[in-house]
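Please, structure for the following, as tokens.
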Amino acid sequence: MTTPEISIERLLRQRLAKAEAEAPRPPRARELLDLVRPWWEVWPERFREQAAKLAQIQVEYAYAMDRAGAGRGGHPVPVLIAHAEELETFARVLYFAVAGETLRMRFQLDSMPGRAEPEFDVTLVSEPESQPILTAHATESVTSEYRLDADLPGELARRWAELKVTDRMPFRLILRPAAGVR
């Protein structure tokens, strides 16, 4: 039995035609724009609700500073973790440095019931205005300790360059699992 010869060119054309037929439709312009917009612009109502909850978290500074002496970091930073069920906690900023227009920060969460997330999308929310400042990606370095690097706008970088890890931070945090709670 002889096998018919199939040219490489014909085989590649067949595979290309099959791939084109099975390919998903290209994204619309609006979908592409939504992918690059920050989540608070895509879901403004959800941001307002979470920012309002975050603003209600009270920091008891006498108690907090008493606890600060026992551990590392400075003032506690209120945190809202946006899981399916939202969790309120605090973070201790362990490292905070602005070099040029790049923020490098490490923080440790006070309490994390269950298994810690390996990555978070972190939204810094200004205090007391409750306006979004920026969003950055944080990865877990050790248990409940996360690190992030983010580009800052020039004016913000100049103001934050003088901040020390022991200063009261001018922001609060909304943490969203990087897997995507949308």
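The longest strand covers residues 86-99. Residues 44-177 form one domain.
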